Amino acid sequence: MMLAPVNNIAEMDRELRTLAAAAGLDYDCGPGGRLDAAIAVVAEAPGERECHLKQPLIGGSGKYLWDRLRADKITRNDVYITNVCKRKLVSAADGHNITDAQGKVTLGKQERSFWHHLLREELSRLPSLQYVVALGSFALQALVGYDAISKARGSVFPIDINGRRIQVLATYNPAHVIREPRMEIVFRFDLDKLARLRRGEFSVPSISTLINPSYAEAMDAIRWLHTTTEPIAYDIETMAGETACVGFAASNTEAVCINFRSQGRNHYSLHEERDIRLAIQGLLGNKELRFVTQNGHYDASWLWFKDRIRPHAHWFDTMLAHHTLFPSLPHDLGFITAQYTDHPYYKDEGQLWKEQGDIDAFWDYNGKDCCITRIAHECMERELHEHKLHDFFHGHVMKLQPHLVDMTMNGVMADGERKDRLSEELGRELEEARLLCQDKARDCTGVSDYQLNPNSSHQLAKLFFDDLQLVGRGRSTDKENRDRISRHPRTSTGARELVAAVNDFKERAKFVSTYIGAEPDDDGRWRTTWKQTGVSRAPGRLSSSQTAWGSGLNMQNIPENARDMFTAPCGWEFSYYDMAQAEARIVGHLAGIAKWQHQFEQARLNPGSFDSHCALAGDMFKVAYEQVPRQDRDASGKPTIRYVAKRCRHGLNYRMGMDKLTTVTGLPNVEAEQAYRLYHMASPEVQLWWDDVLALVRRDGALNTCLGRRWLLLEKFDPLTLDGVIAFEPQSINGDWTASVIYKCHSDPEWPPTARIVINVHDANIALNRHEDGDAVRSIMRRHAEEPLWINSIQNRLRGIHDPMPLIIPAELGVSYPDEHGVHRWSGIEKLH
After folding, report:
1. What is the pTM of this model?
2. pLDDT on residue 90
3. Which domains does the chain have, with CATH numbers?
4. Which end of the chain offers a freer environment for a tag, N or C, measured as fewer CB atoms within 10 Å?
């Protein structure tokens, strides 16, 4: 396939059309722009508008692209514009779609190959071409042979076209950015590299790594690292459950990878490896050195658990810094590499070496990780200063990390016998629940041998919507839609019983698979990885999951009936505190609701005698405070107005709709609608607060909590986005404040040296301490938890007024009591009054 020499765009178009026709392919839209341009923009395929007007990139995606490029004084008249595939995207009916439902290219191999070769031939005819912007995975694959655009975006790949070196910048298709507005800032990051390429400022870092160091070289490198005053990036790689290597970089261009294995053998003798590991412990334990990591919790906990190497507190973590700067973006090192360096995407090298059988490539990959982490940290350190987040990051985020590593490593003792008994009990109960679902399905359908697997969404959908003609929202069988089905007036009593049986089975099955299926470590302790970046809609809140080595479980959602698996050693007990109605109190201050502030303070000063939920119920239902029931349900099990008021406050502050309120309260639709209306009538400031938050974000593009955490607007407002924006401050303040109590307690000079906080449950912490230290531990936890928060209302901030009000959130204390065998269990914690 060869193009004849061309002198203008029209001739190029004719030649391309002729070649496509010769191959029997449709040709709906040719190139545009300038033939002598230095920049070519390559999209995937023309849309409807482009095909109609015979011009590439003039639809919505094109306008979006040119608007962004105009900031760098680039217009469509300055570049050459084309598509890989020159035919229209057609409907699925005729079988010629270019992409499937997931957006992946599905062209036949022969047609794909034709368009790829034609594109390269087309670009070879551009006399001044230096740079190509590849928009999307199909364009990237045609030019570079790699189609994972989500990984490669932001990378620049040099390619050879007819002996000329051309730089290919990979970025998203603008249509994707329009659909995912939070990616707009990422798109801008990528296009900034085009400007830097044109200015000659783009420079791929040259990284060299010392791999397979001899014993003497490894020990010399460690000794030298002890002497440096520069931050040291370190990173580990693991293999078959062991630490394969530890890499260090005290500069941005040179690293050393101390690998314990070579191809098929140990790299050092037993004595040499022992000496090196002891030297690494001495290095990582040197408190005079500043260590930089990417997801350092992983490295520190792995080294501690697997190698008994205990690093001291890290100085900087690029994952946590990026989360502090841009909480809604990805924080993996591949993404960070594209944002902060000119290095092309390389993270696949961590796996590709296995295919190539070259383990040295794995050690070289480790060195790249170290140097790139170090480059990124320098950029982020400057950004943290620029955005006034430096003190918050180093004074809270990094201060917390070593305590979370300690919590991971300490874990909680497990009662293996109780776990086994619980597994057997739950297994039997789960099977009984499955049989009940099947019986109810047979009753409802009238088919005596009806077979139902309640774990199968497909079978449930067929039963609900085809066989029983139940009414929900679409064909979803998730919990929310099952509740809608149950509430619908056309749902029969038998069908409601069926849905209730399915709900019970699903809950039991999740518990069995998630919790009972998990295993403790060999020392009998349950461990969890505590994550500082795990809650996307509430940065500041901790999340938890299995450990890096595959044991343990999420410790924050342990059901009540499983908490007796977790025990304290003989002579020890659990101490507990819970921040009482923390988020509602924070909302009261942010929204400037004076009535709430007064009621909550009255409840704090009169614990046990004044109830803020009763006060709210009285306001909502126009009932005297004294007449509001103190319990959540009456003798018949029906929710009381106190319970309704409490549930309204927990959900309606964050724009919960009436459907959801019906689900969480269990009230009929009419009563839930009434509660919704009465709540907002009693507390009109809540909706005014929503409006003020929206106005503040539109003005500033960000929200900053009283503790210093920032949320940055990276996307357009829609109902789902707004829900997250409204919840950001209350949830993040609560999360950050509760987490800060961990390090405040552990650093308190009066804190007993053997005591430690071992579990975080969102707005509560649980400590493990000796019996004789219990009063001191609980007193110190309460003292730090009840330090005043100074919160400036949203309305004040809109007006430029700095007049924060103090808020003290009461900490309700608890302690475990021994069971009949004298064992203290998590389930045995009772609140102290």
Report:
1. 0.90
2. 57
3. 9-199 (3.40.470.10), 208-387 (3.30.420.10), 417-516 (1.20.1060.10), 594-682 (no CATH)
4. C
